Amino acid sequence: MHSEHFTAVVTGAGGTIGTCISSHLAGLGYNLVIIDTHKNNLDALQSKIQREYPERQVLALTVNITSPQEVIQASRVVQNRFYGIDVLINNAGISPKLSNGMRIPALSIDDDEWDLVMETNLKSVFLMCKYFFDVLKRDKGKIVNIASMMGVTGSGVDTNQIFPYSVSAAHYSASKAGVINLTKSLAREFSESNVPVYAIAPGAVSGGMGKFDESFIKNLKEQIPSHQLGTPEEIVNTLNFLLTSGMSLTGQTLHVNHGWFMGG
Ligand SMILES: NC(=O)c1ccc[n+]([C@@H]2O[C@H](COP(=O)([O-])OP(=O)(O)OC[C@H]3O[C@@H](n4cnc5c(N)ncnc54)[C@H](O)[C@@H]3O)[C@@H](O)[C@H]2O)c1
């Protein structure tokens, strides 16, 4: 099903999961549009992919995806460069923490930070879907949103006696709940165009946002039935499955969390 004429757009491509997704898609033969605010990471990823897969086209765009103007401009650049895109992966996100790395109690979340998390994690998904929709190939384009288990469970607390133990705060969890819900609405609306919209909800993935201190990881592993954190490669495996699923799974959120949370 994959051919070298396929093109994928990956947001947050400079981060841990985004880098893994981008490298994997390049290996499958996709041309890539990699988007992030972190220019150095984007440049490093672009060089790595072009070194490993010299025949791929890789367009690196430094874009703040919370800005409608920047997203519109990016969609124009992509439309001019590629015939159309096959996959849009909305992966960028932030999870603010206290300076010691722990969860911010809900009552201590700054009002401005609430807005920033909502704009980065949720509004950006809406903007990317809205302004890239016309660039997605009809009957071929697919959208995959990276949500979080916390979007279903709510955020964590500081004791692993109460599920879930997590450093994610209330604004992060609420934003990811929005991503899961938005996935359902867009899936219904985009079904007429044969464009499936899926979400992947990781639990705790090592690296990236999952760079935690030793004691936190120990407590976390005690709560997870497999006693393991997830890996970016496991997110990629789920992505692979979704990319072969057609319309049958549109609107679904797949949980990838080693048995930490099982359910809707
Ligand atoms: N790592 C985990 O444990 C975990 C668990 C559940 C869900 N997730 C989700 O997976 C996704 C990737 O997480 P990660 O662990 O790779 O994190 P990461 O911090 O390594 O990567 C996130 C990337 O998003 C980029 N980004 C942030 N704001 C942006 C903006 N306004 N415009 C463009 N780019 C922006 C960052 O620069 C960064 O490169 C996120 O949506 C996250 O919420 C991660």
UniProtKB/TrEMBL annotation:
It holds the Pfam family adh_short. Signal peptide: none annotated. It comes from the Bacteria. Gene3D superfamilies: NAD(P)-binding Rossmann-like Domain (3.40.50.720). InterPro entries: NAD(P)-bd_dom_sf, SDR_fam. Belongs to the short-chain dehydrogenases/reductases (SDR) family. This is SDR family NAD(P)-dependent oxidoreductase. It comes from Pseudomonas quebecensis.
